[in-house]
Amino acid sequence: MQHFFVEPGQIFEKEKKILITGNDVNHIKNVLRMKIGEELSVSDGQSGREYRCGVAELGEDEIVCELRFIKEDNVELPAKIYLFQGLPKADKMELIIQKAVELGVYEIIPVATKRAVVKLDEKKAKSKIARWQGISEAAAKQSKRGIVPNVRPVMTMKEAILYAKDMDSKAIPYELAEGMQATKDWIASLAGCENIAVFIGPEGGFAEEEIEMAVESGICPVSLGKRILRTETAGLTTLSILMYHLETEGI
Ligand code: SAM
Question: Ligand 1 centroid vs 159 CA: distance in angstroms?
Answer without folding.
Answer: 21
